[in-house]
Design a protein that fits this description.
By secondary structure, the protein is α+β, with helices and mostly antiparallel strands. 26% of the residues lie in helices and 23% in strands. An 8-stranded mixed beta barrel has the order 1-2-3-4-7-8-6-5. Helix 3 links the parallel strand 2 and strand 3.
Length: 250
């Protein structure tokens, strides 16, 4: 009987303490995540404007949209090339043999071309028509990623999914590059995130400025489908953070 009473007391205490233990664990995980966010946001300040590489992704983006259209036309299945696997057959018309050309004079030496920057591979793009932004989106807030693209915070939220899809970008000193014109966005403007064969459109709901330690803007509410864009402000001094919030519309 005494053992039963002890067990009942212990069970009662566990029931009483359980909600507090859950809250404590959730707070621990949130603080851990926010600490990581603080480090990620600080990475924005470490990118010097001379390190930013301006890459043209227009062709890659259009190719992705063309693939989307092709899949939609074919009911979601990729079409095969009817000529694939065929070999060329000899033509009945005899080919004309060109006469040999006289050896030409050696061309003047040309200066060596500048080494091309290899574009990072990505299947995700951000497009903001109102401010002419088209950038790749890379996973992870690293200095290397921020040189070429917008980069995602590691909070487990995917484009179009439940929660707060959050990403940041450098604010180049050159007008029109990277997130330079993000301050021009206003409620109603659209943000498009294209991932492979699907595009998710968000509508801007608000724009405001916070201090670097105000990482609450990155908290995720699974009952919402939202997006958060982060960049430094003012340009050059970068003492605060410009935040753009949006909600999924399709």
């Amino acid at each position: 009987m005494k053992k039963l009473s002890t067990l009942l007391i212990i069970a009662g205490l566990l029931i009483i303490l359980y909600p507090s233990a859950v809250r404590a664990y959730d707070d621990y995980q949130m603080n851990k995540l926010l600490s990581s966010f603080e480090e990620d946001i600080a990475a924005l300040e470490e990118i010097d404007d001379t390190q930013v590489v301006d890459l043209d992704y227009a062709d890659d983006y259009e190719a992705m949209l063309e693939e989307q259209r092709a899949l939609a036309t074919n009911g979601g299945s990729e079409s095969s090339d009817p000529t694939e696997g065929q070999t060329d057959t000899p033509s009945d018309t005899p080919s004309t043999v060109e006469p040999a050309q006289a050896p030409s004079q050696p061309a003047a030496a040309q200066p060596a071309p500048k080494p091309a920057v290899k574009k990072p591979k990505t299947d995700t793009f951000i497009k903001i028509p109102a401010i002419d932004v088209l950038m790749p989106v890379l996973k992870g807030m690293t200095d290397e990623n921020l040189r070429y693209a917008a980069a995602t915070f590691d909070n487990g939220v995917v484009p179009g999914g439940a929660g707060n899809y959050s990403l940041a970008g450098h604010r180049s000193y050159t007008y029109g590059r990277m997130f330079n014109r993000l301050n021009e966005l206003a409620p109603g403007h659209l943000i498009e995130i294209t991932v492979k064969q699907e595009t998710f459109t968000y509508r801007v709901t608000e724009s405001f400025v916070v201090n670097p330690e105000d990482t609450w803007v990155l908290k995720s509410d699974r009952s919402k489908n939202e997006i958060t864009l982060v960049t430094c402000t003012p340009i050059r001094t970068a003492t605060q953070r410009l935040i753009i919030k949006g909600e999924l519309v399709q």
